[in-house]
Design goal:
This protein is mainly α. The protein has one domain. Helix content is 58%, strand content 0%. The protein is built from six helices and no strands. Helix 4 runs antiparallel to helix 5 and helix 5 runs antiparallel to helix 6. The longest helix has 24 residues. The termini are far apart.
Length: 153
């Protein structure tokens, strides 16, 4: 093997290990919007689910009312990145598609005030609800502001 090939091989391994480390470091400790909001507000998951059902508020609205909207959006982005990384690793989705989806979520979050229903995922093939995302979903979750939280929380 020539020196250039060895350097390229080592460089590729270092980048791969570094990217994996960053992904693991940035991983969310929560699996659902309700868990994330409970962790941020100190409320129980059950009380938050009940509040959402009784009032019709999005989790984003509840986060905003508790002064935790920015932290909630950050956690939701981590949850979505975790989900997308698993899809890429399983070969269900390309990294390019995952990057496109992440960029769309970040764009939606920039203007998010927590009050609008999430529509991120509409025809993008995301499948955040545990399905494989064949582009048929309507992405009408209750996370707020295009967070695409269509899974059952």
């Amino acid at each position: 093997m020539t020196k250039l090939k060895k350097v390229l091989a080592i460089g590729t391994m270092v980048l791969t290990i570094g990217a994996t480390s960053i992904t693991a470091f940035a991983a969310s400790k929560y699996n659902t919007p309700a868990e994330a909001l409970a962790g941020l507000t100190g409320k129980t998951v059950e009380s938050l689910r009940a509040e959402r059902v009784e009032t019709g508020k999005t989790y984003g609205t509840i986060a905003s009312e508790n002064g935790k909207l920015e932290a909630f959006k950050a956690e939701m982005l981590k949850i979505k990145k975790d989900s997308l990384a698993k899809k890429v690793e399983a070969g269900i989705m390309t990294q390019e598609k995952a990057d496109e989806i992440i960029a769309a979520i970040e764009k939606n979050q920039a203007n998010c005030d927590g009050t609008r229903p999430g529509k991120m995922g509409q025809k993008m093939g995301i499948g955040f609800s545990g399905m494989n995302g064949k582009g048929q979903g309507q992405g009408r979750g209750r996370g707020g502001c295009g967070l695409g939280l269509s899974q059952v929380e």
